[in-house]
Amino acid sequence: MKRPGAIIGGALLLAGCGGPDNERLAEAEARGSKEAAESGRIECALEGAKLFDRTCTVEEMRGADGTVLIVGKADVGYRRLQITTDGRGVVSADGALPAKVTIVGDGVIEVAVGMDRYRLPANTRGAK
Asked: 0.85 exceeded by the pTM?
């Protein structure tokens, strides 16, 4: 299993060789996000932070209402995000604060709930 830091480091190394190759960088970022999520870690920026880090965890739970992602916020709790089937991506399963979903790259969405932001792998093909 590759470590997320090694993938990010490789993406930065690519950027230093004769100018950035945006397509290769985007592919490396998408791979890094997917592999990190598969290992249970995702990028997040909590409580209004500007920079993302891989300190949040994610787990899937399947139930009668569909699939819910449990996103752990280090030592400060968790959020539940319901995966939708209508093209919105995810919605807040807790209901207190709405989730705003933005496509940030090929295969990556950013979900903002309150002052927290999370980057999750997603099927973004065909999305506008």
From this structure: no
